[in-house]
Amino acid sequence: MQDRYDFIVIGAGIAGATAAYHLAPDGAVLVLERENQPGYHSTGRSAAQFFETYGGPEIVKLNRVSRPFFESPPPGFWEAPLVTERGAMFFARADQLDLLERHRAESASAGASIFSITAGEALRRVPVLRGDYVAGALLEPDSKHMDVAAIHQGFLRGARREGARLVTGAEVQALARKAGCWQVTSTVGRFSAPWVVNAAGAWCDVIAGLAGVAPIGLVPKRRTAILIDPPAGLDIGSWPLTIDIDEDLYFKPDAGRLLVSPADETPVPPCDVQPEDLDIAILVDRLQQATTLEVRRIAHRWAGLRSFVPDHNLVIGEDPDARGFFWLAGQGGYGIQTSPAAGRTVAGLLLEGRIPDALQAEDVTEASIGPGRLRGA
Q: CATH 3.30.9.10 in the chain, residues?
């Protein structure tokens, strides 16, 4: 394996995969992944659903630019659809109806197709909801289920097809810039490139520290989920993603079972995060308050990491104080749905020195997504 590249991408989750996919046609790309399985900590533990209006204003712009890729991916990207019809339904108690209406108005103003339905209609769509709990609901029919594995593997496969090299079990141990190149020392060898793309997820600030680059204030947060069996004889295949309007509970069909989460966001250090018994107990209590579901057995439980900077926007751009050190971080809960636009932005900035036209048309600027905004630059 050669030791000199045009771009070294650190991390092979969704961020690193889309960066490599978009850079590989125009340069020699090496992707270093510390785990043996790409996407192990976050991407592979995602319960992604596409909402065009999910996230802050800058995230929504990336969502809009990403949507056509998911609905009509390039030929050969993947053999099956990347997104399928699922829809989303938000439900509310009587004391949450004002919040429900506010969410409807904000989503509609952002361009979402969303409308109010009665509590009775909500119960017809998802019959396990309690009639004495649900007082109203919203339906967002254009929200879609995302095949996370297909999207992630499609980016990795496409990158390799263009000559990118993926090396797993390759933990980065040191970075130093010498003679215009970054020297990257890892557990599998030393490599160099003019550009390093820091796409290490929850470890992005750790990688920056190894390079002597100031952190961006990244905070990894734990998200818990479980899989349970639905009641015998109940067809759940047509159920939408069902969300409490306070976003402290959601559930959706997943391969014949129900995926359920308390939508927790507990700050943790970057690690191989595991579910906590207390979070699962809270989840079961919330589920049984809102529905008639009885959790007799948990088929599977897990936790993942969602990493945020203070403004909850993505960070994409060259560090203002470190030549050739490029950030692709802070995906939070938006990394899958923004991945096509994020990858295009990485390639646009690194290959052409500019934001791609589609994102410029959405008023995305280097200042709005770059790391400089987090340091008062």
A: 88-142+219-308
Structure tokens at 317: 């751009």
Superfamily assignment of 88-142+219-308 in CATH?
D-Amino Acid Oxidase, subunit A, domain 2 (3.30.9.10)
pTM: 0.94
Domain 7-73+147-218+311-375 falls under CATH 3.90.1300.10: no
Residue tagged 């770059």 (tokens): 370
Q: Is the pLDDT of residue 377 over 50?
A: no
- Tell me how far apart the alpha carbons of residues 308 and 267 are, in angstroms, rounded to a whole number: 10
Rounded to whole angstroms, the Cα distance separating 53 from 105 reads 12
**What is the number of alpha carbons within 13 Å of residue 13 lying toward its C-beta?**
30
| CA-based nearest residue to 22, from 361, 346, 362 | 346
The set of residues, in sequence order, having a beta carbon less than 8 Å from that of 98 and lying 6+ positions away, is none
Task: Please name the helix (run of DSSP H) or strand (run of DSSP E) that holds residue 160, with its range, or none.
Answer: helix 148-161
Q: How far, in Å, CA of 234 to CA of 344, rounded?
A: 43
pLDDT digits (tens, 9 = 90+) for 247-273: 999 999 998 999 999 999 999 999 989
Query: By CB neighbour count within 10 A (0-12 exposed, 13-18 middle, 19+ buried), where does 54 fall?
Result: buried
